[in-house]
Design goal:
The complex is a heterodimer of chains A (450) and B (445).
Chain A: E1 21-25, H1 49-61, E2 66-69, H2 90-98, E3 105-111, H3 117-130, E4 135-140, H4 156-174, E5 182-185, E6 190-192, E7 202-203, E8 208-209, E9 224-227, H5 232-241, E10 244-248, H6 253-269, E11 278-283, E12 286-288, H7 291-303, H8 307-317, H9 347-358, H10 363-373, E13 380-382, H11 383-396, E14 401-404, H12 411-426, H13 439-442
Parallel strand pairs in A: 1-2, 1-14, 2-3, 3-4, 4-9, 9-10, 10-11, 11-14, 12-13
Antiparallel strand pairs in A: 5-6, 7-8
Helix pairs in contact in A: 2-3, 3-4, 4-5, 5-6, 8-10, 11-12
Chain B: E1 9-13, H1 34-46, E2 51-54, H2 70-77, E3 85-91, H3 97-110, E4 116-120, H4 136-154, E5 162-165, E6 170-172, E7 182-183, E8 188-189, E9 204-207, H5 212-221, E10 224-227, H6 233-249, E11 258-263, E12 266-268, H7 271-280, H8 287-297, H9 327-338, H10 345-355, E13 362-364, H11 365-377, E14 383-386, H12 395-410, H13 423-426
Parallel strand pairs in B: 1-2, 1-14, 2-3, 3-4, 4-9, 9-10, 10-11, 11-14, 12-13
Antiparallel strand pairs in B: 5-6, 7-8
Helix pairs in contact in B: 3-4, 4-5, 5-6, 8-10, 11-12
The chains are: A alpha/beta (450), B alpha/beta (445).
């Protein structure tokens, strides 16, 4: 455990009885680019509620804390040919899922770069009411999509400045309704106590918003805020506003620990207890019934990769580096790579790749890595091996839990919920029941009162 | 009459508990509880109402009434219903077209082709977005462009673009997706949309402004038009004809646009009982809040300081053409004052708070059905938007679903079951195919 991070209770088991927080990405039929080509992948349901209803139901039966939907504001015509795109919009899909689930958290990405705070605050508050307190917002900045909004993309640091103002504005709007403002006093004709509804009068460099919101105080007070950018600017925003941090799961334990310590120190510097922010690295396991089967599935999935078509996707992760003429089995020459600070989009993810390139990874391996996990850690093994890995990092103090990105669906998803989770439960490291009613309570955080 | 082969369309405005919230039977404590809306939606679906639509409400008597946001609520209702349409109101003044096109397309996919969008222009709210509210005509100019962008984005996909053939590693046929490349005065949107094609070709577009500028937009873009239900038949028929003319002038067939006047029937088992229900609903009205709401909604019309029973101070009512907010609604009230139908301050406030300018026939189911049938068969309506001002839920909704609707079915003018999977099909609209076949785009791989 890092000395400056969350306090340890004395006594039992892993981290003194503290338990993992687990969320799962429900992006579709699997995080690996080849997953849709597997027989039985349910790709036909990729854009239908039926698939997502099943995934959320399985996750809820396993007592996972939350499902999570990523997002982007561009359809990339270069990659759609051989790769399913997200398709359903997070707020609408999570609203639909709120009606068919009861306990699991519903966290969606919404861009702070191309949305209006009032609209976002309203939809999130509404989702929080629909779900009785299970809504979460992954506060993202958009690294692309400006062509769909008729404007220039702000640069990296400006986007994070905007994101911070956006988060402030949204919390100010949620604060315009007192917790118990709705009275429904039939006798005296008092529907809501007007003294508990107020203006926001929020002003910042980019926003001017009077309020009040036209949706009552969310049941959680504030819906959960997650944050996923891991650059220094991203860490500062996370430290101030986030309850959850989704970070790129690193391959090495050391990198993982270094990030965890860095972020928690940002949290403390922002005046918050380190334990108020749960750090969840992304892990995209390829799980099999046995290790041999897992490796066979990995080979199968990698066999579906169109390496030539995937060069463009990797190039985008590498700040537009030209890769077309390189041999697959050679490393990428350093001269092809832009400087870290010059990369305006997804900067921290680029940093992860620079590390792998410095280790001498070949173009082929980098492409395999990118299309299996978008840069997240992809451990391969049976459920015991994956459980060992998750618990090792938890005990080392480099994670408070994980965001699981199933490599393939449905079997890869069900091996997480039906094989991996029970092992974690048997070892006392994961909940067998939801602890409370709201997502905030289930995460061990308090609902925010007005 | 020959036109009327069970083709009448009914939409239900889906709102909160409105002013009857103080009644003991009101479920007002569930105003932000999905279960109330799920009940309403299922009952409306059992009655075969074509579609629900959600206004972005500001309560008419000024009571702070929190409610759900329309897109999220209707998305939540998608898995709880099977056939009924889901149409949220979304502003063209304070939303980005790409975000709106996406959310509506996503709602449409989630519901298996039952999604729509009620195009509204927002008559207030600039202070929530750090901008001035554009003037009435500018808002409609923006709305016109906005609808163009949204339709262009929805047209970026050919219906059969998704191939999903694992053997050929072909997920999307890139020749069947294209950019929108939209550029106009207010918007520049490249596309394509990142939601796959609609199960109904394109989500339904509804529109509700009945001012001249609103009619032009409706005639050009809308599949369904909600008009202010006129108390008298003849003005209602004129509005109907006028909108159909606008549609034809925009190069569309008159039948491509379904015109649904708003109507808030007050139904009792007898005419006398209906009148009692109507009178009873005034009892708990807070006139001072309603007075304030009037001032907010019809900017400049401020009756504060006037006795409720004083004659309407006519000098406070400006000419319709200079009003910037909710112009067509205002026009209805102004004409009723001019004609002497609304005489006192109380009359105007009551009318505004009760029906917000819409038509509210009062009587037995047979009597109300007579009036609806007359308008439908007489060429003044393709159907109606049922407004819940007097939905004494559950009794008030039951009066519609178990009283009025069976009466309309018995007369052979309203359908007895949904005949299609999609909202477009159920509305009796022609199948939609994207306006132009997508051009081939450059393949990047």
């Amino acid at each position: 455990m890092p000395s400056d991070s969350s306090p340890l209770a004395p006594g039992q088991r892993v981290r003194g009885g503290e338990q993992l927080v687990l969320a799962v990405l429900i992006g579709g039929v699997g995080n690996h680019i080849g997953a849709w080509r597997r027989p039985g992948s349910r790709i036909e349901e990729k854009y239908s509620l039926s698939l997502f209803k099943d995934l959320a139901g399985w996750a809820e039966a396993a007592k996972l804390h939350a499902v999570f939907l990523a997002d982007g504001l561009r359809l990339d015509l270069d990659t759609v040919k051989g790769q399913p795109f997200s398709g359903l919009e997070p707020v609408t899909l999570l609203s639909a899922l709120s009606a068919v689930t009861e306990h699991i958290g519903l966290i969606g990405s919404i861009s702070s770069t191309f949305s209006e705070p009032y609209n976002v605050a309203r939809q999130l508050a509404s989702l929080d009411h629909l779900s009785n307190g299970r809504a979460g917002w992954n506060l993202v900045t958009s690294a692309y999509g400006e062509e769909n909004f008729g404007r220039e993309l702000p640069n990296h640091d400006d986007r994070y400045q905007l994101a911070a103002e956006f988060a402030e504005a949204i919390r100010a709007l949620w604060d315009t309704w007192g917790t118990d403002a709705i009275k429904i006093d039939r006798e005296h004709g008092v529907y809501a106590d007007a003294s508990k509804v107020r203006y926001a009068d929020f002003k910042s460099e980019h926003f001017s918003i009077r309020g009040p919101l036209n949706v009552a105080r969310p049941p959680q007070g504030y819906p959960i805020i997650a944050q996923a950018g891991s650059s220094d600017a991203g860490q500062n925003v996370a430290a101030r506003y986030a309850d959850l941090v989704f970070t790129t799961g690193r391959t090495s334990d050391e990198d993982s620990l270094a990030f965890y310590r860095s972020l928690k120190s940002h949290v403390v510097a922002a005046g918050r207890p380190a334990s108020d922010v749960k750090i969840l690295p992304g892990i995209s396991p390829i799980i099999g019934q046995t290790e041999t089967e897992a490796k066979a599935i990995e080979r199968e999935l990698n066999g579906y990769i169109d390496f030539d078509a995937s060069r463009a996707r990797l190039s985008r992760q590498l700040g537009g580096a030209v890769l077309d003429d390189l041999e697959l089995d050679e490393p990428i020459p350093a001269g092809r790579l832009p400087a870290y600070e010059a990369v305006e989009g997804r900067r921290s993810r680029y940093g992860v790749y620079l590390g792998l390139i410095a280790e001498g990874w070949t173009l082929r391996r980098l492409i395999e890595w990118e299309v299996s996990s978008s840069g997240h850690y992809v451990p391969v093994g049976d459920s015991e091996q994956i459980a060992d890995l998750l618990l090792r990092r938890f005990e080392q103090g480099s994670a408070d839990g994980y965001i699981l990105l199933p490599s393939f669906v449905p079997e890869g998803f069900q091996l997480i919920t039906d094989a991996l989770v029970p092992i974690l439960q048997e070892r006392g490291a994961f909940q067998r029941e939801y602890a409370g009613t709201t997502l905030r309570e289930n995460l061990g955080l308090s609902n925010v009162a007005a | 009459m020959s036109r009327r082969d069970r083709g009448l369309v009914l939409a239900l405005l889906f709102g909160g508990v409105a002013r009857n919230w103080r009644k003991p039977w009101s479920r007002s404590s569930e105003v932000v509880d999905l279960s109330l809306y799920a009940d309403l939606a299922r009952k409306a679906e059992a009655a075969k109402i074509h579609t629900l639509f959600l206004a972005d409400t500001v309560p008419s008597d000024g009571t702070p009434e929190p409610s759900f946001e329309p897109v999220t609520l209707l998305s939540a209702l998608a898995p709880l219903t099977e056939r009924i349409g889901l149409i949220p109101s979304i502003s063209t003044t304070f939303t980005e077209p790409y975000n709106l096109a996406r959310q509506v397309a996503s709602l449409d996919r989630l519901s298996g082709g039952r999604g729509g969008w009620n195009l509204v222009t927002s008559a207030w709210g600039g202070e929530q977005f750090g901008k001035e509210l554009p003037a009435h005509d500018d808002r409609y100019a923006i709305a016109d462009e906005f609808a163009g962008v949204v339709k262009a984005l929805w047209d970026t996909w050919a219906p059969d673009a998704i191939v999903a053939d694992p053997r050929r590693n072909l997920f999307v046929d890139p020749a069947k997706v294209r950019r929108a490349d939209w550029v106009s005065e207010h918007f520049s949107v490249r596309g394509p949309l990142n939601v796959p094609p609609s199960p109904q070709g394109r989500p339904i577009i509804a529109q509700a402004g009945s001012s001249e500028a609103g009619k032009v937009i409706g005639g050009r873009h809308a599949d369904v038009i909600f008009t202010t239900g006129q108390t008298e038949f003849e003005p209602s028929r004129q509005v109907y004809d006028d909108i159909k003319r606008h549609a034809v002038a925009a190069g569309r067939a008159a039948g491509d646009v379904k015109i649904l006047p708003g109507v808030g029937p007050v139904i009792g088992s007898t005419d006398a009982e209906a009148r009692r229900i109507w009178a009873d609903s005034h009892e708990l009205l807070n006139y001072e809040r309603a007075r304030a709401s009037l001032a907010t909604q019809f900017a400049g019309v401020d009756f504060s300081g006037y006795d409720l029973d004083a004659p309407v101070p006519a000098h406070l009512l400006p000419d319709e053409t200079v009003v910037q907010g909710r112009r067509s609604r205002y026009g209805v009230v102004k004409r009723l004052v001019d004609s002497g139908e609304l005489r006192t301050v109380r009359d105007v406030i009551l009318y505004h708070a009760s029906a917000a300018g819409h038509w509210f026939p009062i009587g037995s189911a047979e009597h109300v059905a007579d009036q609806l049938q007359e308008r439908y068969e007489g060429g003044a309506a393709d159907g109606f938007a049922l407004l819940p001002f007097f939905l004494n839920y559950p009794a008030g909704l039951a009066a519609l679903t178990d009283g009025l609707i069976p009466e309309l079915q018995r007369r052979g003018i309203f359908h007895t079951d949904y005949e299609h999977e999609t909202l477009r099909g159920n509305l009796g609209l022609a199948p939609y195919v994207p306006a132009r076949p997508p051009s081939t785009v450059k393949e990047g791989s």
